[in-house]
Amino acid sequence: MKITGGCHCRKITYEAVIDLDNVVICHCTDCQSLSGSAFRTVAMSELGAFKFLSGDPKMYVKTGDSGNEREQAFCSDCGSPIYSTSIGDSPRQYGIRLGTVDQRNQIAPKKQKWIGSSQPWSQEIGSLPTTEKK
Ligand SMILES: [Zn+2]
Ligand SMILES: [Zn+2]
């Protein structure tokens, strides 16, 4: 699916092609701290299918438990995370942060990863009281 997206302040905008069968919720502790939330929802791009249309993101390189380095792109003005991807010259797959995707209401996750480090309540939010606003 072809998508567009951008950070909260819209300095950074992008287009990409994602694989609708590869949209995941990640409960790993890195995703918790890097997103500032209990879990992160990621839409994986097709290989190389990501292009910035405007803006110049800041990059943070994270070293995972495996020793692999992952580049994390985010907006240096508003702080919105945009994607993570591999380091190097081979064609990259981009893990696009679903909250920055303009068409996100048409895209649903298909899988949950790293469930062992999930927050215990995260599987039960459906039973919480809800309000339209606030
Ligand atoms: Zn921004
Ligand atoms: Zn993660």
Note down, in words, how this protein is organized.
With 134 residues, the protein is mostly beta strands. It has one helix at residues 29-35, and strands spanning 2-6, 13-26, 40-54, 58-63, 69-74, 81-86, 95-97, 111-113. Strands 1, 2, 3, 4, 5, 6, 7 and 8 form an eight-stranded mixed β-sheet that branches. Strand 5 (69-74) and strand 6 (81-86) form a beta hairpin. The longest helix has 7 residues, at 29-35. The relative contact order is 0.26. Residues 7-9, 11-12, 75, 77-78, 80 line the site of one zinc ion. Residues 26, 28, 30-31, 40, 114 line the site of one zinc ion.
Compact overview of the structure:
With 134 residues, the chain is mostly beta strands. It contains one helix and eight strands, in the order E-E-H-E-E-E-E-E-E. It has one domain: Metal Binding Protein, Guanine Nucleotide Exchange Factor, Chain A.
Labels describing this entry:
134 residues; binds zinc ion; Metal Binding Protein, Guanine Nucleotide Exchange Factor, Chain A; mainly beta; 1 helix
